[in-house]
Protein: Transmembrane protein 45A-like isoform X1
Amino acid sequence: MGSFRGHALPGTYFFLMSFWWIIKSILKYVSKKQKRICYLGTKASTQRVELVEGIILIFMALSGIGGEQFLNGGPSLILYKEGQWNQLDGWHHCTMYFFFGLMGVSKVLCSTINSLPGSLVKLMMSNALFVEGFIFYNHTHGREMLDIFVHQMLCLVVLLAGIVSFLEFLTKNNVLLELLRSSLLMLQGTWFWQVAFVLYPPNGSPKWDLKDHNNRMFLSICLCWHYAFTYMIIGVSCVFVTWLVKWRLRRLCPSEVGLLKNTEREQESEEEV
Amino acid sequence: MGSFRGHALPGTYFFLMSFWWIIKSILKYVSKKQKRICYLGTKASTQRVELVEGIILIFMALSGIGGEQFLNGGPSLILYKEGQWNQLDGWHHCTMYFFFGLMGVSKVLCSTINSLPGSLVKLMMSNALFVEGFIFYNHTHGREMLDIFVHQMLCLVVLLAGIVSFLEFLTKNNVLLELLRSSLLMLQGTWFWQVAFVLYPPNGSPKWDLKDHNNRMFLSICLCWHYAFTYMIIGVSCVFVTWLVKWRLRRLCPSEVGLLKNTEREQESEEEV
Amino acid sequence: MGSFRGHALPGTYFFLMSFWWIIKSILKYVSKKQKRICYLGTKASTQRVELVEGIILIFMALSGIGGEQFLNGGPSLILYKEGQWNQLDGWHHCTMYFFFGLMGVSKVLCSTINSLPGSLVKLMMSNALFVEGFIFYNHTHGREMLDIFVHQMLCLVVLLAGIVSFLEFLTKNNVLLELLRSSLLMLQGTWFWQVAFVLYPPNGSPKWDLKDHNNRMFLSICLCWHYAFTYMIIGVSCVFVTWLVKWRLRRLCPSEVGLLKNTEREQESEEEV
Amino acid sequence: MGSFRGHALPGTYFFLMSFWWIIKSILKYVSKKQKRICYLGTKASTQRVELVEGIILIFMALSGIGGEQFLNGGPSLILYKEGQWNQLDGWHHCTMYFFFGLMGVSKVLCSTINSLPGSLVKLMMSNALFVEGFIFYNHTHGREMLDIFVHQMLCLVVLLAGIVSFLEFLTKNNVLLELLRSSLLMLQGTWFWQVAFVLYPPNGSPKWDLKDHNNRMFLSICLCWHYAFTYMIIGVSCVFVTWLVKWRLRRLCPSEVGLLKNTEREQESEEEV
Structure:
């Protein structure tokens, strides 16, 4: 990892995964509201999507582990060399990737074996996030102040995402909890990019002063702006998906839309009474 | 902010907002108990109230951001000037206001678009409070002991309010949770005033010794007294609103009151059996 | 407080209150299991008990405040004297008593006004405990190591009791949560006595070395033994109350006991099928 | 304890207990899914299993207390000797064993007395774990960095297990929560072995440098690998138990299996609709 690319890669993974989950959550919610469309509705298609997601997650984890171990002079699977531990940082990162890989495996299993409880995936996600947070917490001994700070922020975001995943595991089908978790994962992704720019400025940009406390104060609000940015993405996705579903609906069965609107109006007037 | 007015303004905002929410919660609860009155009862009027609240929140946030940026020699939207960050304190405060503005936007959206889940507002409130707490936590580097202490207390109150908001988001319609959250917001409001008096004593009052530990011990119980004060306000509001609702009821339909009392008595006797 | 009696008094209060609550919880649970007895069963008698409890709580709070303010050279309601705060420790204790008094007031109100939600009392108890924990946390500046430690333990027990009370407020009618909360309150009571013996050894006993870390290690398991002791009391109460209820039942309606046993057996055999 | 065996013994106890609980949870879940088998299904047999578990737990606790008190020059029930506390470490361990013994007692009571609430066992388990975590937290004063670290990790795992037990107590019959708790207990068991190997390397292995921070970084991922290992055990148990149940089913009633499969298929097709 200790490089720009090493931080940009997981950042991109988290961003893409969470973006897809945001789209999926909204799509599921909107489809449910407009009950007649069976886009993503059948159990079989949902399971196929889960299966593909699981395989992609496993691929991501394997590529991450491979990159850590063999690129840029990684430890190459050697844990102990010449009387001391061999590049523990690389092993830390591999362990994190491994647990996300386990989550991918649980996704594959849950989508193929019916008798497994569906919330297993949520539990494994929460586990993977807690393990990641735990490792980041024990990761930054003896570094500069700002380096520690940006990793602590990462740790905070990861642990919050883990807690929200765990709440998802305990409750069922709360679309806002899903979006909250995805937004925190996306925040993690963009924050990985921020860390890459702060610690390894590319193309000869000037280095950040890692001891200046003003930088720390700036980065603490910067994290909030990243978070506001994920909200913006969720908002735009929401508008786009709703429009898409309505457009498909209109093309497929224009007569039913009118009916839908009527029933909606009736429901509302009933609620008002 | 760094002035008496800069602390009194958000204090007033929080106090007024939470006072209104206390009144609203009690009104809703009392109206529900006396089922026949439709004061605030129709969905349309509730939505109109939410809309107005949202617009007021947005206005408050914008006025706060404007004041921070352009009054008292604020940063004037310039983030980086002459090789260093430009007045990060002001930007911190703007970020907090911005997230409360987002909550206002979500209120407006939820009151105009029916398909949005109603608990979105609670989630955004909890988010805004967590962001505020996070920023306050990273806000007081290098200040005096008492200055840090009063901001830590603010941070504690804000985070507790955020947790209660999040619980409100997870559960539904618990009037006591609503009042608890409002009381914590009101505590925040009055505490802002207390901070203003401690750090920027107006009209030439003697300055507080920011290093004296006795002041800290006093302020820690002072916070509890503020909290007791919010209880008093809730109690008085409760009595007043109940009297108001009963008085309206008596004027509107004096015959029904008698009926209500009878049914109440019957219910009680049934419960006793 | 700063004396043996000052710690023994609240300790006795907490012990007696929690002992009564343990008896009450078990009595309610056993009576419910044996549905036909209406001991404590009518709503009216429950409310009368609540009313008396509330009045006793208010009396305890007032006696505590009075003792703190006027006995042993207390502050006598003077907060600020000769340019400095006047005996803030006493004011700290008064604030704690005050919030327990508020809980008593809420008990009285809930038992007289039917429209108030019943869980208000639980919320006020949790509030009183959180306030107590908060004040203890800010109470021990500049004291000896062991003095701080025993107060931290108090603070821990109080906050745990506050969390359990809050869970009771969120859930309904879980007898084990009630007993857990009562056991933590009883632990607090016996720990107050322990603190009194450690810090103010009576009758010329040798003083504890407040800097010796072995004392700290002993007191940390001592807390656990206190807790085991509350379990023993709960166990004995349980046996005694069950025996009492069955004895009353047998005396009042000996024929029904046989019926009860039969129905019990039937239920069990049904469950086994 | 302060020896290899003193850490290996509780490690083995926790490993065996949690392994049995993993098997039991999976067996219960699989049996429920295949409703017709009454393996472990009758209330009487469940109670008998609980009774035996309780007795084994009590035996484990007593053997642990006995070993601590009388083997290897333990305190032999003498708490205070020659003006100072006598081997408080041993008393710490005894207190932990004692609370697990209490849990065994509650298991025995719940399985013999029908009127006790079943979740009492969960509460006592959570209590025992919290007490253990609390004692470990106050256990390592003045030791080397790595010694403190491995005990902190133990403390973390124990407290997490305690929280999960408490969640089990609050919710009902969530097989994944049960497995999560068992996996954390198994992690505790294997970690005890790890601690034994780190602090008391057997057979003249080289000693670990207790001040080297690299060792700490290695042990932090080592904990994660232990956790991954418990997952593997759960996975293998799951496959084995499912195969066992199906095999028993096939041998007992081969005709019903076909029926089961048909109904399963029907259910699925219904869900897809």
The beta strands of chain D are 80-81, 84-85. The helical segments of chain D are 4-33, 43-70, 88-112, 120-137, 145-170, 175-199, 213-252, 254-272. The first strand of chain D starts at residue 80 and ends at 81. Chain D has one domain: 4-272.
